[in-house]
Amino acid sequence: MDNKNLLNRSMQAVWHPCTQMKQHENYPLVPISRGDGVWLTDLDGKRYLDAVSSWWVNLFGHNNLRIKVAIQQQLDTLEHVMLAGFTHEPVVELSERLGKLTGLGHAFYASDGASATEIALKMSFHYWRNVGKHKKTKFISLQNSYHGETLGALSVTDVAIFKDTYAPLLRQSAQMPSPDWRLAEVGEGAEAFALRCADALEVYVVEHADELAAFIIEPLVQCAAGMGMYHSAYLKRAKEICTMHQVHLIADEIAVGFGRTGTMFASEQGNTKPDFMCLSKGITGGYLPLSVVLTTDEIYAAFYDDSTARGFLHSHSYTGNPLACSAALATLAIFETDNILAKNKEKAAQIFSKMQVLTDLPIENSRHQGMIFAFDVKTKNASFSKASYTVALSQGLLLRPIGNTVYFMPPYVINEAEIDHMINATYQVVKQSL
Ligand SMILES: Cc1ncc(COP(=O)(O)O)c(C=O)c1O
């Protein structure tokens, strides 16, 4: 296939996400024809190591045999049926398994992360209405939070570049101090800082409890903020504060769920059972779009009624798609049979120790939480992010730095030679992009 021709056709016909399309005059699209393991191959046969798991979705590599076979088998029996009025084995089994893993036994499905955020916000609001607390209509989130870009999700997101333009369309929400330890005072430990931020949260919640429906957070790592990591003590305190003052805690585990932070779900590290958990991205191993909101018996019960209007009348056409659910079941099976969490623990230690070679460079805040690794580059180059992205591609590496933060969120199947390539190429990338 003609490479150039495909790029031109894409520029004409496809409006690419999160992109000022004109910038592709200088930064050409990369036409990918194949994926295998951690590698993506372009039309000229050049390979790129996918160090960002294709926007944090891929867990067990591209072209993963077990997930592929599970989808193929499902294709032979049922590709899709609407979930209103109907049900099927993959969606039931997946819901049961997620219920066991999280202790949240009621699963409501959608296809993307942002849709899961919308569902959790609407459900929380509707719960309070159903129990007669009509004033509880507001949401709070953390500074620098990211929960997706549909209007409801953007209302609780705090990233100016995505939010400011649409401000007139959004609901007001208040942002609590972020416990990201990079924001701590000099000499203040991560835990002490997290608890100080939790104190500020408490002050706000106490004052506004009557009108607050929910507090939505990204447990342990604020990924889109540049992999801002924080101490698990914050999660524990946040849940206590929310419970005490009758405010729901929504754990947005869309990016951090499925082993990314070292445990199956990040909330576990704060010993926290949220009222809602949003999952997506890695849920299908990166194969098909699927998201889910899990919630408690108590919340479910408040909707279970003779009145139709008290029910949760929200839907998406592809809710609970059987192919996506079968990919998710195969993904969960791999976690179990291949002892992934234990293996990741060793791999994460190995990657972080190999990252020490980067300390020759002008970098700071080298950090990791499970299989998320990051450092911040001290540079005056205002275009560092774009420059490093381009140099990385030339080195056979897909990196997508966020501002001056370089991060790795590789597929869990990355092997030692591939880790070496990722880190050695990154060394050159940073050096050449300062
Ligand atoms: C924490 C978090 N929430 C929500 C989303 C939105 O998910 P999606 O892009 O699938 O809508 C993302 C995406 O990066 C995310 O990181």
How is the secondary structure organized here?
Blueprint: H1 3-13, E1 32-36, E2 39-42, E3 47-50, H2 53-56, H3 65-77, H4 89-102, E4 106-110, H5 113-130, E5 138-142, H6 151-155, H7 160-163, E6 174-176, H8 190-208, E7 212-217, E8 221-222, E9 228-229, H9 233-244, E10 248-252, E11 276-279, E12 291-295, H10 297-301, H11 322-337, H12 340-354, E13 363-369, E14 372-377, H13 384-394, E15 397-398, E16 405-408, H14 416-433
The structure holds pyridoxal-5'-phosphate.
Would you kindly provide a brief summary of this structure?
This protein is of the alpha/beta class and 434 residues long.
Determine the strand fraction and express it as a percent band.
15-25%
Rg, please?
A: 22 Å
Number of strands: 16
User: Which structural class fits the helix and strand makeup?
Assistant: alpha/beta
- In round numbers, the mean pLDDT is 97
| Main β-sheet description | 7 strands, mixed
H/I helix tally: 14
What are the low-pLDDT stretches, counting only 5+ consecutive residues below 50?
none
Determine the fraction of residues in helical runs and give it as a percent range: 25-40%
Bound molecules: pyridoxal-5'-phosphate
Could you give the order of strands across the largest sheet? 4-12-11-10-7-5-6
Q: What is the H-and-E element order?
A: HEEEHHHEHEHHEHEEEHEEEHHHEEHEEH
